[in-house]
Amino acid sequence: MARKKRKVPQVNSSSSADIAFLLLIFFLITTSMDTDKGLLRKLPPPIPPDQEQQDLDIKKRNTLQVMINSFGQVAVNGEQIDVKNLRERAKEFIANKEDLPNLPERFPTDVEFFGTYPVTKFHVISLQNDRQTEYQAYIEVQNELVAAYNELREELSKAKFNKSFADLSEPEQKAVQAIYPQKISEAEPKVYGGKK
User: Fold this and answer.
1) How far is Cα 70 from Cα 110, in angstroms, rounded to an integer?
2) pLDDT digits 0-9 by tens, 124-159
3) Which among 14, 45, 169, 187 could disulfide-bond with 128, CB atoms 3.0 to 4.6 Å apart, if both were Cys?
């Protein structure tokens, strides 16, 4: 006698899409996303359309040109240096404590808490990199330049207020920042040669 084949009952999958959708929503709500952190830069305000664009006349002594080539090598005003020496070189340029003629001009400026203080208010650090520069080299140079400003501000805060810059009140921090304003200008990347 032949056996009859049993039919296998089919699973009702009409609610599977609903369950998958609910699980997706649950994981989207409960999972935290990593947020990328960028470099803190204050961009200049946009130029009003009715204002003519003027080229700024910046004296050569007020500009520190920092270039990074495709191999990650750093040159300051055309002289190749090690990244480890960049911070000290930038600090010397920003402060110009000895008022040297090849470093930025110092102008007596009225600063709250300090009175009249010599400030290199027209200094600019111009950073330019090759299109093939590795991101790590670029960040390393950025970190050294920002650290130069942070160290100068920290030294001044301790000398004047006997406190760390982070512990100063907001008006005191603004006064220290007025003496050492952070001015890093980034030029459009170019091709200097090297990697292809």
Assistant:
1) 43
2) 999 999 989 998 999 999 999 999 999 999 999 999
3) 187
Q: Are 104 and 92 in contact (CB under 8 A)?
A: no
Please check the confidence at residue 193 and state whether its pLDDT lies above 70.
Answer: no
Please tell me whether the overall predicted TM-score, pTM, comes out greater than 0.85 for this model: no
The dihedral built from the CA positions of residue 132, 137, 139 and 142, taken in this order, carries a sign that is negative
Residues with Cβ within 8 Å of residue 61, at least 6 apart in sequence: 101, 102, 103, 104, 105
For residue 107, what are its two tokens?
Answer: 């102008």
| Two tokens, residue 79 | 């002289």
Length of the chain: 196
Quickly tell me which residue has 């080229």 as its tokens: 55
- Nearest partner of 138 among 61, 34, 38, judged by Cα: 38
Token pair belonging to 71: 């191999």
